[in-house]
Amino acid sequence: MKFKRNILITGGAGFIGSHVVRLFVNQYPEYHIINLDKLTYAGNLANLKDIENAANYTFIKADICDFNKIMDIFKQYQIDGVIHLAAESHVDRSIENPQLFLQTNILGTQNLLDAARRAWVTGKDENGYPTWRKGVRFHQVSTDEVYGSLGAEGYFTEETPLCPHSPYSASKTSADLIVMAYRDTYKMPVTISRCSNNYGPYHFPEKLIPLIIKNILEGKRLPVYGDGTNVRDWLYVEDHCKAIDMIVRNGKDGEIYNVGGHNEKQNIEIVKLTIATIHQIMTEQPEYRNILKKKEMTPDGQISIDWINDSLITFVKDRLGHDQRYAIDPTKITRELGWTPETKFEDGIVKTIRWYLDNQKWVKNVTSGEYQNYYENMYKNR
């Protein structure tokens, strides 16, 4: 089957990546979507069970740091677009092992850029700059953490100076700079998006919202860093994917676009809202109480949820170098491409919690490590 485009999506088995893959596979049947993922701890092919047999979808298990493999993929599939999400992405893990983040997030990105350059350059112009195949694009998905931390007021714009504070954000900043260096040096067609905190289905339960949901269902304490006043701008993952789609199709070469949800919340607000939402759902639909591992009974024989309250919160020692506040100004992408966040946090958090309540098998698989067997079971005979 001949496709109109062949798009390589890296990190497509992760949280955001799997949503991007699903959107492109379903929305563009004329595109061949090649999903490349190393399947580390947060990469889970079960995230894509619903589209794994689609005619326009191919999965490849590979490491972006393996340059020869990347070159082979560009040649075999005639890649003409890259959406690069593959990254080590958890700040706490970067504090424990900075080198892994530098290798994957910086060197891996450079590998992809150079493979694309070798595959897409068609010659030189009169000034010695490379000429490029028509329609190619390298899109780098980045983070608002590259900007550092804000005070009580103000927002990150695309002109905000880069000032990363953690090994993770420093590695993403470096990757962004390399992407722009390929733009400036080789005139490579590139774009970058920098997003705020994503939330939604399929989020690996080490991040705040899924961790709080999981701990409540297991009757555990809810750890909150410091005094809980750190502020993040929350973006529903499907809204983010729509922004990426718009940028890849219509973004201007060499431009950076900030993508934010207009949903600033303190961490403690998030935790308390999650507690209250789970309590409300289990009040209105008592059948969900059967999911609870802590089964205290009421006098009338029902599973009690009286203990699901703010007393579960426990404040723990703050993260090293913890940024106080992030907030995105998405005016540019709204003005130039027409994107706006569609999901209010109050609606998105309910959708997210209900998804986790309805998909406990997925949660069990990812927390037990069983999901790592999915690749072998699914692809061993292919």
User: What kind of sheet is the major sheet?
Assistant: 7 strands, parallel
Query: Looking at the chains present, what oligomeric state does this protein adopt?
Result: single chain
| Secondary structure category | alpha/beta
By CATH, the topology of the domain at 5-200 and 236-262 and 324-343 and 371-379 is Rossmann fold
- SS field, number of helical segments: 12
Q: Calculate Rg over CA atoms.
A: 22 Å
Count of DSSP strands:
14
Q: Termini, distance in Å?
A: 19 Å
Quickly list its features.
382 residues; three-stranded mixed sheet; seven-stranded parallel sheet; alpha/beta; 12 helices; Rossmann fold
Task: Note down, in words, how this protein is organized.
The chain contains twelve helices and 14 strands. The chain is an alpha/beta fold. It has a domain at 5-200 and 236-262 and 324-343 and 371-379: NAD(P)-binding Rossmann-like Domain (Rossmann fold), CATH 3.40.50.720. Helix 1 links the parallel strand 1 (5-10) and strand 2. Helix 2 (67-77) packs parallel to helix 4 and helix 8 (267-284) packs across helix 10 (345-358). The mean pLDDT is 93.
Short description:
With 382 residues, the chain is of the alpha/beta class. The protein has twelve helices and 14 strands.
Secondary structure layout:
Blueprint: E1 5-10, H1 15-27, E2 31-37, E3 57-61, H2 67-77, E4 81-84, H3 91-96, H4 98-120, E5 121-124, E6 130-132, E7 137-143, H5 167-186, E8 190-195, E9 197-199, H6 208-217, E10 222-225, E11 231-236, H7 237-250, E12 256-259, E13 264-266, H8 267-284, E14 313-316, H9 331-337, H10 345-358, H11 360-368, H12 374-379
Helix pairs in contact: 1-7, 2-4, 4-5, 6-8, 8-10
